[in-house]
């Protein structure tokens, strides 16, 4: 029972470090909508971490955002195709590639 409580506290800490730190107003409906979006973003970020690597499965959502979502990449278009240019020696390129492949996309770099 204590471990389950610790897991819930970890989720609350993750949410308070991100979206719940910026609740929009004193209006119940606005805060309810914000909480719904925060929970959705949290769950999608956790799934992305799980698909990327074992390290990111256990990482906090802030770490996943820094490593896999806020990436220093450039998107180029040509011949009706998107090309993603990642940095050459980027430490998380392999994990990002695994995440990209798991979503069913083809990676062209």
Please, could you describe this protein's structure?
This protein has 109 residues and is mainly alpha-helical. The chain has a domain of 68 residues. The protein contains 5 helices and 2 strands, in the order ααααββα. A two-stranded antiparallel sheet has the order 1-2. β1 and β2 form a beta hairpin. The longest helix has 25 residues. The termini are far apart.
Which terms summarize this structure?
single chain, mainly alpha, two-stranded antiparallel sheet, 5 helices, globular
The profile of the biggest β sheet is: 2 strands, antiparallel
Distance between the termini: 47 Å
Name the strands of the widest sheet in spatial order: 1-2
Query: Which percent range describes the beta-strand content?
Result: 5-15%
Average pLDDT level: 86
Residues in helices, as a percent range: 55-70%
Oligomeric state, counting identical vs distinct chains: single chain
Number of strands: 2
SS content category? mainly alpha
Number of helices in the DSSP assignment: 5
Strand/helix succession: HHHHEEH
Which spans have pLDDT < 50 for at least 5 consecutive residues? Answer: none
